[in-house]
Amino acid sequence: MTEPGDRDPTSDQIDAAAQDWFLRLRAGDLPPEEQARFQAWRDADLRHRRAYEEVRSLWAEIDELEHAFAPPGRERLAQAPPQSRPRLAWRLAGPLVAGLAAACLLLFVFGPATSRLPAKLLADHSTGIGEQRVVTLPDGSVAWLNTDTAIDIAYTGERRRVKLLHGEALFEVKKDASRPFDVVAVDGRTTAVGTAFAVNDADGSATVTVTEGMVMVTSPDVSSGSNARDTGILLEAGQQVSYRRGAAPDVVRTLDATAATAWRHGSIVIRDRPLAEALTEIGRYHDGRIVLLGNASRYGAVTARLALADLDGGIDALAATHGLSVTRVTNYLMIVR
C-alpha cells in the first residue's frame, strides 16, 4: 500500500492504495489506529482524496444492485448491535457479502447483454458484442448486422417482414413491387420496395437512416388515448428519423448517411457529441462497461473516427485529448477519469 511518506507515487499506486483502503473500510471493524492511518493517507495529497472518492462513487452504483439481491434478514442482521449478532452468522457474512458483491459487479458489467439473451435464442440471426455479420435473406436481399444485434425473419407470399429484436441492421432490399419489405422495430414499421436503409433499436427508441432510395416510416401514435392511429413519414436518402412507442416520429434530420453507417467498413464516426454520449456509443462495440467518472458536463464535445479493430487504442487517445486517463479494472470494466 502507498503510505503518506512515499515520494512521488504513480497514478497506479495511488489507485491501488485507494482501492485497498476502501475495501478495508468497507469490511468494517477497522482498528482506530488503522482509521487514523487512512485519514493521514487521504489528507496527505489531493490526488489521494480524489482517487478514494472515485472508488467510492463507482461502488455506490454497484451497491444499488447488491441491495436488490440481498437475502431476507441480511439488512436486519447488519443493523443489529454487534453483541447481538450470532458469531456463526458473521463467519458466513464475509463470503456472502463477497459473493454478492461479485454477482452485483457481474450484473453491473454484463446486465444489458444478459437481459437480451432470450431475444437471441428466438432470433434467426444474431451477432455478439463487437461482431458484424452479413446475412442473405430468402428473397436475395442483404442484411448487415451490427454489434449485438438479433433479427427474426417472417416472409409470406404477400410481404417480406423482418423484426429487429434489438441492435442495428442495414438492409439492402432487392426490388419487388409486388412484395413490400417491412422492418418492424419498437412497434413501428419501415417499408421499402427496393432501397437501402438502417434501423437501430436502442433504449426503447428506433432510429431509421436511409442511404439509398426512399422508405415510409410508420409508428403507432396513441397520444389520443384508445383511438390509436398510424402516423407515417416519408424519408429520402441522407435523412434520418427516430420514434418511440406511443408517439409520432420526431422531426426529420439530414445527415451524412455514409458516416452514420461507417461500422459496415470497420469504423465508428462520432461528430460533435458530448464525451459521455461518445463513450456510450463506443461501448456498444466493447465488452463490459465503460464508466466516465466526474462531472461529464465539463468535458468538451467529441469529433472522432475510431477503428473497430483497435477500440482500446481509440479510447486511450480520446481520453488523452480531454486530459483524462483510462484504468482497466478488469478486461470488462474500464474507468475513464
Average pLDDT level = 79
**Unreliable sequence segments:** 1-8, 64-100, 222-229
Q: How does the major sheet shape up?
A: 13 strands, mixed
Element order: H for helix, E for strand: HHHHHHEEEEEEEEEEEEEHEHEEHEE
CATH architecture descriptor name of the largest domain: Sandwich
Global geometry: elongated
The first-level CATH class name of the largest domain:
Mainly Beta
Could you give the count of β-strands?
Answer: 18
Describe what is shown at a glance.
The chain is of the alpha+beta class. The protein has nine helices and 18 strands. The strands form three sheets. Strands 1, 2, 3, 4, 5, 6, 7, 8, 9, 10, 11, 12 and 13 form a 13-stranded mixed sheet that branches. A three-stranded mixed sheet has the order 15-18-17. The protein has a two-stranded antiparallel ribbon with strand order 14-16.
